[in-house]
Design brief:
The protein is mostly loops and 78 residues long. The chain has one domain (14-78). 8% of the residues lie in helices and 8% in strands. The chain is built from 1 helix and 2 strands; from the N terminus they run E-H-E. The radius of gyration is 13 Å and the shape is globular.
Length: 78
């Protein structure tokens, strides 16, 4: 049997991301993109610009659907 990749479905997020959220897509394409397939533009690789790590200042994981209004360390994009 051939190897197959399977990804967990991520919730679609329409709220603005935290200004400190960074992704591989931003380095390649210059913008944070919502992509259908995670292999495109590094869709699942995120880090916090404040901590330079995959954990934010609140020690929770940095993901597109978690770095939104309501999170303690969230800062609005200007």
């Amino acid at each position: 049997m051939a190897f197959e990749k399977h990804y967990d479905a991520q919730p679609r997020v329409i709220t603005p991301p935290c200004i400190h959220l960074r992704s591989k897509a931003m380095c390649v394409a210059g913008e944070l993109r919502d992509v259908e397939h995670p292999d495109e533009a590094g869709g699942q690789h995120f880090w916090c610009n404040m901590t330079q790590h995959v954990l934010g200042p609140d020690e929770a994981h940095v993901l597109r659907h978690t770095c939104v209004p309501g999170r303690e360390c969230y800062r609005e994009t200007h």
